[in-house]
Amino acid sequence: xxxxxxxxxxxxxxxxxxxxxxxxxxxxxxxxxxxxxxxxxxxxxxxxxxxxxxxxxxxxxxxxxxxxxxxxxxxxxxxxxxxxxxxxxxxxxxxxxxxxxxxxxxxxxxxxxxxxxxxxxxxxxxxxxxxxxxxxxxxxxxxxxxxxxxxxxxxxxxxxxxxxxxxxxxxxxxxxxxxxxxxxxxxxxxxxxxxxxxxxxxxxxxxxxxxxxx
Length: 214
Hints:
Layout: E1 4-9, H1 15-32, E2 40-45, H2 49-52, E3 60-67, H3 75-81, E4 90-97, H4 105-115, E5 119-127, H5 136-160, H6 185-188, H7 190-203, E6 211-213
Parallel strand pairs: 1-2, 1-3, 3-4, 4-5
Antiparallel strand pairs: 5-6
Helix pairs in contact: 1-5
């Protein structure tokens, strides 16, 4: 049975933190609708010392949020993931991006999270915006997140046997298209990749589409 939801994020610009917190809170609320024992939630920067000391188990759901820098997850975020042991914990992989495409970032996040022992049962890529809360882009982003929350919460409840303890089932593997990037600029020069991403977002006239896998 699920007892807590933990959001871990790397968020230099703040947008990934925002969407990770939103997912963690909304998923917790959905699970609490059926769980007899209240489920708690919290979020923190994945580079926080407390994050490195967290112990995960089958009663925890983890949401790992990463921004996209030139089609990949940032080096500092990747290094932080490699310091954490997943212990088979059910996990949702999240990437946020501000250009037309998220590249191989979601595939990367799934791959490296599973290498650390996390069991990725859901994955999502959301275009994010710095526009005001009443803008169409913001409202569309919010609706896309809520649709994913509904679908992922139902899956988590089935997998964990939240309603009836004996109904815990084994998840099928996710298939996310992608490759581990071969170009190394963001790995060797992570600051340059962050600056490049900011420039791409500033001059891009294209808005990406939300995509998720369950």
